Amino acid sequence: MRGGARRVAVLGHVGRPAVRRAARRVRATLARQGREVRLDERVAAELDLPGWPLEQLARWCQILLTLGGDGTLLRGARVISPHAVPILGVNLGRLGFLTCCNADQLSNALMRFARRDYLAESRMALQARVLNSRGVERKQWIALNDVVLHKGGFARVVRLHVAANGETIATYAADGVVLCTPTGSTAYSLSAGGPVVFPTLETIVVTPVSAHTLAIRPVILPSSVEVTLQAEDGPEELLVTVDGQVGTTFAAGETLSVRRAEGGVLIIRFPGTNFFTTLRQKLGWGGLVDRDGLS
Predict the structure, then answer these.
(1) Residues in CB range of 77: below 8 A, 6 or more apart
(2) What is the pLDDT of residue 294?
(3) Exactly one of 70, 146, 175, 243 is catalytic; which is it?
């Protein structure tokens, strides 16, 4: 067997024929390399094969391979983060900003993986907690991209008090606030007017969503701070969303606390690719797609 990671877990976006085909290829290829492969229970069910819960796989595996898009990788990252296991993401979706290769590059990616021709890039993650009016924690998550406090479907402004280490930054009159990592700076924060931050830096970006004061702008904070948000008025119930996938309601008197997570996330990339190449290819930086041959 070549390469160091013997135990490989596979997580995939369910309900897609392309994912099922890719899972079969991955399983067969890695088995030929002498590796032990286990499938997430939801993907395994679609293939009529044995499967394991993702939480159990996170404690077992030495590398996590995700088949889908950014959402699949983010789901895996939230669970795998405490275990310092690298993630190899294969894009079978649309954007695939966090993944290291597309579906047509899968065979080459597995070959390079076998040769250990890859880098595991450390990315900062966030720990988000919701504290009730008595200061007691009732929810907690890990986020690779972002944590968002927003008004949901209510058509009215929200006033959110934002502080860093207890020092008031401002009270934002806005539709919400995005707290993101550098990795998440190219996600929701970017569409809300936030900056693009190089992904291996360690900062927390605070981006208002549709601020009702033109002077309010995104703020980049050091990763050492704890950012807290409280609602001063607005709808009786707001929403907290983590990586666009999970979350909870947020009531008056509660506090959203966000700080750097103790463990980061290891994202695999192959030599020859870099962040700015990804920006040009995925976001069309540098000119017109048809003219410049971007994909």
Answers:
(1) 87, 125, 142, 144, 243, 265
(2) 47
(3) 70
